[in-house]
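Justification of computing resources. Each target in the renewal requires a structure prediction run like the one illustrated here; the chain below, 206 residues long, is used simply to show the kind of job we budget for.
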Amino acid sequence: MPFSTSVLAAAGGWATIGGGRDNTVTGNHSTVSGGNLNTIQISADYATIGGGWENTIHVYADRAIIGGGAGNSVQTGASDSTIGGGNSNTIQAGASYATIAGGLNNTIQTNSTYSTLGGGSQNSIQANAYFSTIGGGRFNTVEPYASVSTISGGSDNLIRTGASGATVGGGFGNLIQTALQFWEHSDGIFERNQKEILNWQSYTRP
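Resulting structure tokens:
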């Protein structure tokens, strides 16, 4: 039986690979402790992957951490973000200070800074929903711009786009809608705007 050797590459300044196989570090002061096929990309400085398989910290995700698991990814510019473990979890570009503790196929999308996903499976905090939380469960979603919102757990719960500060405590199939403010011009054109508009009437649409 052929002997399987480890292939280690540490190209970043002051980078460290503790062991494992086919791991790569090109970020400065960054560390992969072990595992297989883990990667810290260039300019992801002071980043850490503890172990696991095929985990990736992308460009400019400085100080990001992946503790372990398989197929987890902290994407470009998501600095100071953490994935504790699990499988196929993703923190997308620009979602700095975000955390996914574990679970399966969970996602914090672009620019949802300071958001937290505790675990479960196929939960999603979508783009620009900063400071939002999903505690666990499955198929729960916080839609874009629903900032400072919380789904504690359960299944198939949904907080709609723009419903900031909303909370679903748990259960199944619960929905919080958005109340948007619209203005109608005298020519019948609708516009959402915070500035003063002449000849408008106020509407609330669920």
